[in-house]
Specification:
This protein is α/β, with parallel strands linked by helices. The protein has a single domain, classed as HUPs (Rossmann fold, 3-Layer(aba) Sandwich), CATH 3.40.50. 36% of the residues lie in helices and 19% in strands. The protein contains 7 helices and 6 strands. A 6-stranded parallel β-sheet has the order 1-4-3-2-5-6. Helix 6 links the parallel strand 5 and strand 6. The N and C termini lie far apart (41 Å).
Length: 164
């Protein structure tokens, strides 16, 4: 089985190329995004759940530059953007991956125009409407509950504790 295709939003020279990328996906198109630095069971459940809401799932992955702005920690991300994108693209419920360089996927959402935007329960609808979805029209928002006790930060803390 082949991995899902990966494109870099900051390197697309025309919106037409983005349209051609998205055109092949089954509707409704679901979009979600994240850093996905240290992928764990919580990420897998979240992506699997997001995929259930549509005919295809496109995942936006923060580039290294945008991931560093999210203040996940001074040495984060541990894995580079290309590796993180390849890992996400290898999941069977992911149909496409788009690397993006901005703090939020707002510009990408405006250009992509998915049917549904899915985020985890660590975000509020109010926050997402003011940031990621600001000025975005006709995109339904769905917030899914997170798998308890799973996060990359928690995983890192456990590794550090185990090796002290």
């Amino acid at each position: 089985m082949e991995c899902a295709p990966i494109i870099n939003f900051s390197r697309i020279d025309t919106r037409q190329k983005l349209f051609l990328f998205v055109e092949k996906f089954e509707r409704p198109v679901v979009f979600t995004s994240g850093v996905f630095d240290l992928v764990h069971a919580g990420h897998l459940e979240y992506l699997k759940e997001a995929r259930r809401y549509g005919g295809s799932l496109i995942v936006g992955v923060n580039t290294d530059k945008s991931a560093k702005k999210l203040e996940k920690g001074p040495s984060r991300p541990f894995n580079n953007a290309d590796d993180r994108a390849k890992l996400i693209a290898s999941l069977r419920y992911v149909d496409g991956v788009i690397l993006f360089n901005e703090d939020t996927p707002n510009a990408l959402l405006k250009a992509l125009k998915p049917n549904l935007f899915v985020k985890g329960g660590d975000y509020s609808e109010n926050f997402l409407r003011k940031t990621d979805l600001s000025g975005v029209k006709d995109v339904e928002l769905k917030i899914v509950p997170l798998k308890k006790n799973y996060s990359s930060t928690r995983l890192i803390d456990n590794i550090i504790t185990a090796h002290q």
